[in-house]
Structure prediction request, 274 residues.
Amino acid sequence: MEKGMLEKINKYTRREFTEEELYTFSVILCDNEIDRDNERFSENALEKLKEFFVGKTGIFDHNASTENQTARIFETEIITDTERTTKAGKPYKYLKAYAYMVRTDENKGLISEIEGGIKKEVSISCRAMKKTCSICGINKSISNCGHIKGKIYNNKICHVILDDIADAYEWSFVAIPAQVNAGVTKKFSDDTEKKCADIDTTEIGKELRKDIRRLAFFRGGRTAAETAEISAKGMSVSQLIELKKAYEQLTGRSNMEVQLKPENKKEQTGAYKL
Prediction:
């Protein structure tokens, strides 16, 4: 564990924990790229989210219950990739967070899934007060300009720029995030790297094959499930993960709500989920 990290984590605990008692990992929460829903965060929005997400808890599928809490963020930073440019022509920037969990018998499976790349994609829930049309500059939170997200106007793709962040609520592990790059990043500790080698990949593979068969059944019935089961035999864990992702995209994306849809239609500047 990096120097000073334990001290930052213990600011959130009631007693001081040792390095051996904790599991740490890093995650990309969001970036300034135009996402699947043709929306992006402004640089100012990323800066505000950087402040708001320190101390925020991680859950599953935006289900805000105490039993669903899994991890807590203890540090954040904004990273600029000077070799990459967004679709909007901006230098690519992303918000990276560092989270911790207390190792228990109950979360051994979750830690293995994170290490194995199964639990990877994440989504955030925040409050955006301003939504600017990239074509005309009108704040869509106040009025509708008529420009359609995803449509091309004068060789420019129409998208909404999210700004004036009032709050951040939580971050969640999800199957398919609106932001393509959001998710758990590579490990940043030698100790974690060693633990990764101790994972029972046979058990992980078994669970992945079950998930693939189930997803295929939902997609096309028994025949599709049997075909998927045959295809999954002999695959490595990384190949199984990619196959599972493919089935999740087929079965889940068509039923998902549009990103940043207001939870309360009457409150157009309310809480949003990404």
